[in-house]
Amino acid sequence: MIVISSSLPKSGSTLIANYQEDLLQIVEPRNGQQQLRKAFGGRFIGSFSAPTIARLLALHARYGSIVIKTHASVNPLIAGLIRARVAVATYCYRDPRDVILSSIDHGVRTRRGDDPSGAFREFETVENSLPLVQGFVDRWKSWHRFGQAHFIRYETLMADKLGHLKAMADYMNWWLPEDQLAELVDRHDPKKRPGGSYNFNKGTTYRYKTEMSPEDIARCSTAFGDILSLYDY
User: Fold this and answer.
1) What 3-state class would DSSP assign to 153?
2) Which of 40, 31, 225 is nearest to 137 (CA)?
3) Radius of gyration of the CA atoms of the chain, in A
4) Which of 40, 46, 96, 176 is 20 to 30 A distant from 224 in Cα terms?
5) At 80, which helix (H) or strand (E)?
6) Domain housing 18
């Protein structure tokens, strides 16, 4: 199986992909994850062209199941893999107002040299971040329209990681005892990792209510009104 672990950026995507890689290692020790990382320089794939899909299918056929992390939209190639049951998808999402704030935090860390990847460097203010996050939300809408994914709401994930991990594993037909799932949750608790992670900010929800100005909240309501209403934010 090919697991497409897609998400809105800054919505727990690294945590979810870590869970999925660990689950794969438990349920299918002989898998293609190491070969995927060698072939693509990691597990993240930004876009899915026909040559990329062909390489993934070849890796999958030769070595076994793989977990891919992405922020890409659904395109016909991804949709075809899922409809053919060669792939299964998960999609994490979050209130886009909090995505803006988390992206700005990450940008601060990147500009001071804490994240060598250079991610989120351009995120400085709500105003300049708004059009960038609108692009993220457009990709989210493509997954919403497609519908064939296991959707994970960041706000409830933070409140019940074990419950979400169990539901996700069940969706992928990876059944594990609850004590093993609880061990995975504990393993990836950022508060217990030496040095923490530059991908993890505060892990808090609904930050925008206290950290955004009324003017910025109004701008976001105009930009994201349809998705905020659709997902009851």
Assistant:
1) strand
2) 225
3) 18
4) 46
5) helix 76-83
6) 2-230
